[in-house]
Structure prediction request, 107 residues.
Amino acid sequence: MRKWRGNHDHFRVGEVDLADGDAAEWPLPDDFTYIHMHKPFGDGVFCSALDRIIESLERRPCPLTLVYARPLLDSVVLANGRFRLIRVSRGLRRDLDSYRIHVHVSC
Prediction:
């Protein structure tokens, strides 16, 4: 988070909220529009975090973009039917499939 705060002026974005907490338990605010995850967790925590995201979408249906770098559990994102894959990037390590970046939108 320190790195982000130090580089915030280099990004062309408006207000940004960074969260630091237990992803399996943290109640996601209903006004999120973008979520970026970089191979964030193991299976159990990832599924719980994804459940929090889906709960937020159910409370307030809105467009949500999920950027998932090193998407080792991408099948879980797609299996719930709440997201569709709109873009795949090879990432910085084009020689390794595990460094892909998947962009999903809520449906």
